[in-house]
Amino acid sequence: MASARRAYEDRRWAGQSPAARKQVLHRIADRIAAEAVELAVLGVRDNGTEFNMALKAEPGSAAGTFRYYAEALDKVAGEVAPTAPDVLGLVHRMPVGVVGAIVPWNFPLMIGAWKLAPALAMGNSVVLKPAETASLSLLRLAEICSECGLPDGVLNVVTGSGAETGAALAASMDVDVLAFTGSGATGRKLLEASARSNLKRCYLELGGKSPNIVFADAPDLGKAAKVSAAGIFRNSGQVCIAGSRLLVEASIHDEFVETLKAEAEALLVGDPLELSTQVGAVNSEEQLRRNLSFMDMARSEGGQVVTGGTRILEDTGGTYMSPAIVTHVTRDHALFQREVFGPVLAVTKFETEQEALSLANGTDFGLAAAVWTENLSRAHRMVAGVRAGVVHVNTYGGSDNTVPLGGVGQSGNGHDKSLHALDKYTDLKTAWIQL
User: Fold this and answer.
1) What are 267-326's pLDDT values in tens digits?
2) Which three-class secondary structure string do you get for 303-320?
3) What is the residue extent of each domain of the chain?
């Protein structure tokens, strides 16, 4: 943190021209792309994501993110206020100073880039803490940034536990902004630490329990089933926006669940470094135990397991779980209300559009959602009515850097991606000049 503060105060990075910062960020993006396979493998060895997904979601996404903010940074301008003729009012956008970033283990390089690229683009220094179980790709990224001309001290990647390293970042008087992706419990601790220290701004992306709503008039139910399976089972369900609650119109419920069951059972679970693997490993033994405990709770509450939900391939020494579909899940069930962060899909049927909307908004979370319908008016009504930061229509996932990702409610208050992310890493300074 002292290193980041020194680097910011002497303006070795913040004092460079936008054109110079742009060149460095473009070189970083090019190097990430050139080392994509190596970076993807580093991440897979840490977190078990299937390689084909990791290649696209980690280095592929990170390179695109650095390029996006490289191109954005010299388009961000201040303002001239409409003042009286004898006054000049200017609004400057200034870097905040030192940014602390804490990122999770599921997509460390992708989410790390979401924090790093806009913060660096605006001239800040950064201290980044990876998750304890997934630091390899971010440590390599730090080396890449140095090799590509980012001045020493501007980016500091520090490993360690949340209780020690993360707590130190949160309590520091030298960190001006804290950007975090992770659990709600940790997010609350960060806010408390901010209040006890320097009142640093905290931007928190805290996960979700996202509804995936399928109406009988969906344009292609087969496609809806295939995409819905990917939306919950890719990366073993370890995705913040995973469509973990499937809400299906009653008239097509049984047929759709059967189609979805076939899609789930056809997925190849196995070694994430095998190119044929479609679903990789669960991150850790601890996470696997948590997933299986949710299956026990689901059964005890009356849920019916259609397929999966057990540990598999245990003889390999890996932590693998078969994709699970549980029907007869009601609003008061744990599987409806709580984030599993595993390959477990809760299915609930509905009769009317209003009931679907009520069920969709029936949790404390509000990160993502999806609606499948060919009725344009219904699609717009659901987009307006579902309480979520992102609502997909006739798809699930896939949004790029042009739009923000963030939630409402217990899903937090931070928005990554898009030009809006730049606001987190800038301060507004007014110059009021008497002429």
Assistant:
1) 999 999 999 999 999 999 999 999 999 999 999 999 999 999 999 999 999 999 999 999
2) CEEEECCCEECHHHCCCE
3) 2-206+412-434, 211-393
Q: How far apart are CA 99 and CA 13, in angstroms?
A: 14
Our measurement of the distance from residue 117's CA atom to the centroid of its chain's CA atoms, rounded to an integer in Å, reads 15
Residue 344's H or E segment, with its range, is: strand 344-350
Q: Please name the amino acid found at residue 305.
A: V
In 144-281 the beta strands, taken as DSSP E runs, fall at: 155-157, 177-181, 201-205, 211-214, 245-249
Burial 1-37 (b: 16+ CB within 10 A, else e): bebbbebbeeebbbebeeeebbebbebbbebbbebbe
Instruction: Please name which of 204, 199, 203, 243 lies closest in space to residue 225, comparing C-alpha atoms.
Output: 243
pTM score of the predicted model? 0.96
What tokens appear for 248 in the block? 């299906």
As annotated, the active-site residues are 205, 240
Q: Which amino acid appears at position 8 of this protein?
A: Y
Q: Which fold has domain 211-393?
A: Aldehyde Dehydrogenase; Chain A, domain 2 (3.40.309)
Q: In CATH, what number does 2-206+412-434 get?
A: 3.40.605.10
